[in-house]
Design a protein that fits this description.
alpha+beta; six-stranded antiparallel sheet; 12 helices; 22 strands
Length: 568
């Protein structure tokens, strides 16, 4: 309930009276908006809508009256009251500093670009020192754009300081949460405001272009007149016209390298070339005809952009800068083809005529690339050590993987199971050796001989095998036999072995330091040897005929001797 007080009574308790009829107690409104701006008004009524008589004049009028009062009457003039306090949300309402900026975004999953240049607008609100960053939207960009950073106060360092308009200027960096924004330009209001505050403005910068965006820009369409030297005419004029060069690849600096000849064919119809190998008999190379198949060959295959994934993709015409042309091929010069150095030492007659007509070249002096063949060391067999047969030892030296000695199969088939049997007596000074009898069996199929000692009762000597089947060289005509005491001193590579020509009646032969005399032979020996009488010595055949005319031939092979030969 409202109270009233007479004007002549002091404002003390008991001097106020309530108005029982008053029903309105609302507070009058002194704030309002005009054209979107807040403004305050002088209160005209008090609580409940009662009229105020002491506020009928404005505040400016009251200040003016206070300053114009006479000094003599009221003393010294009063100073003007301080200016009215205006809060920041009123003074800087809708005042914003605007900067144009950009930042670079790293792209790691694209082969066409490494980074993007993204332009943004930086808004600084003077009302509360907050900052908002907005990226203009680009249609069909495929990138989320718009508001990158909501309006907020941004920390400038780890000391608790925030970005202030005093720290902003053109051509400077704005670091926001680890991302660097480059301020390039500002609008007219921002420039005037900062200049009025005593900040010297830097020169504006231009926002750099995005490399990928520039690559997507299509060049204006150009129209050029067709040339007479088109693809069809080139095919008609130059088809089947090929330049031929003779070249060598010298890689003797490497291990097992050599000077290898090649032939280069350059096809004029489409500027392709191929390199073919020149094979020779027993050159030790696989018979592949082509080293480089027909194709356009770049001059420098490694001269490409560092961003090109050459480990997974082949080069195309877009990545290659220069290709080989006929002007790059000259006799006597070295060309580098896929990191191989080839020396062009000669060319054919058609190539010479082509270079005379097109390039005016007249010097086609061939380069001599023939080198004397290297003298290979002569392979010498090591001396025979007496282990195994001589033929086996030779085969071990001639190949890495040992092979069995070659056998004359024709001779084996012709003389299969044909043997010559001789009776031998040992030549010795010991009396117990005088009556010992030996049977020598010579196999015509492989020229091996074996010796069997016949059984003599009460002789004290064990009969049976005396010498296993083997080939025995003549004394002084070959190397000793393994496990024997032969004193052969002849040529190791070409030993002379015993043959039927050495077994004439009465001849003395030496086997392993044992001397034997041939005393008899069977009738089959004369029969087999007379088939080829021109091959054997006549004196040997005559001695056998003479013996068989006086004495009986050697008895046929007994069952005991046959079993012994089988065991041998």
């Amino acid at each position: 309930m409202a109270t009233t007080r007479p004007d002549h009574l002091p404002f003390l308790p008991g001097n106020t009276f309530k108005d029982p009829t008053k029903q309105r107690f609302h507070v009058s409104n002194t704030l309002g908006y005009k054209n979107g701006y807040m403004r305050s008004t002088i209160p005209r009524v008090s609580l409940g809508g009662e009229r105020l008589y002491h506020n009928q004049i404005s505040e400016n009028e009251l200040n003016e009256l206070a300053n114009k009062m006479p000094t003599l009457t009221y003393g010294k003039a009063k100073p003007a009251p301080p200016e009215r306090f205006i809060p920041a949300h009123v003074a800087f309402d809708k005042k914003v500093l605007r900067f144009s900026a950009y930042f670079k975004e790293t792209v790691t999953e694209s082969q066409q670009e490494h980074y993007r240049v993204r332009p943004v607008d930086v808004y600084y609100y003077l009302e509360d020192d907050s900052i908002a960053i907005i990226e203009p939207r680009v249609e069909n960009s495929g990138i989320p754009q718009g508001k990158l950073l909501k309006r907020q106060q941004l920390p400038r360092d780890d000391q608790g300081n925030n970005w202030h308009w005093k720290d902003l200027n053109v051509s400077t960096n704005l670091v926001v949460y680890g991302k660097v924004f480059r301020l390039t330009q500002c609008d007219r209001f921002t420039s005037d405001y900062l200049t009025s505050k005593g900040i010297a403005m830097n020169d504006a910068e231009a926002t750099p272009d995005d490399p990928y965006t520039l690559s997507r820009v299509e060049e204006p369409q150009r129209f050029t007149s067709k040339s007479n030297w088109d693809k069809r005419k080139r095919f008609v004029e130059l088809d089947r016209k090929v330049l031929r060069f003779y070249l060598v690849w010298d890689d003797r600096e490497e291990m097992f390298g050599e000077l290898r000849p090649f032939i280069l064919h350059y096809f004029l119809v489409n500027d392709t070339m191929e390199i073919r190998e020149v094979h020779k008999a027993n050159d030790g190379h696989d018979p592949f005809p082509v080293l480089i198949s027909r194709q356009k060959v770049p001059k420098d295959r490694c001269n490409v952009k560092s961003t090109y994934p050459s480990i997974t993709l082949e080069l195309t015409a877009e990545e290659t800068k220069e290709w080989f042309t006929p002007a790059d091929l000259k006799v006597g010069e070295t060309v580098l083809v896929y990191n191989r150095r080839f020396l062009l030492y000669d060319c054919d007659q058609f190539t010479k005529n082509y270079y005379r007509q097109v390039y005016g070249v007249t010097d086609f002096k061939a380069v001599d690339v023939n080198i004397p063949p290297a003298q290979l060391p002569k392979m010498e067999l090591p001396p025979y050590n007496g282990w195994g047969t001589l033929e086996d030892s030779k085969m071990n030296c001639l190949s890495v993987a040992p092979k069995t000695p070659k056998v004359d199969f024709v001779k084996m088939l012709e003389y299969d199971k044909d043997t010559l049997r001789y009776e031998l007596r040992k030549v010795s000074l010991k009396p117990e050796d005088e009556n010992r009898k030996f049977i020598l069996t010579y196999r015509l199929s492989d020229d091996m001989l074996s010796i069997y000692e016949k059984k003599i009762r009460n002789s004290g000597i064990i009969p049976g095998k005396f010498l296993r089947a083997c080939r025995i060289p003549k004394p002084g005509m070959g190397a000793p036999i393994a496990g024997t005491l032969n004193d052969g001193l002849g040529d190791t590579d070409n030993p002379v072995y015993y043959s039927p020509a050495d077994f004439s009646i009465g001849a003395v032969v030496k086997f392993n330091q044992h001397r034997f005399r041939v005393v008899n032979c069977d009738a089959r020996v004369l029969k087999l040897l007379e088939k080829h009488s021109g091959f054997w010595p006549a004196a040997m055949l005559a001695s056998i005929r003479k013996l068989h005319g006086k004495e009986n031939p050697l008895a046929p092979v007994s069952a005991e001797e046959k079993n012994e030969e089988i065991n041998q």
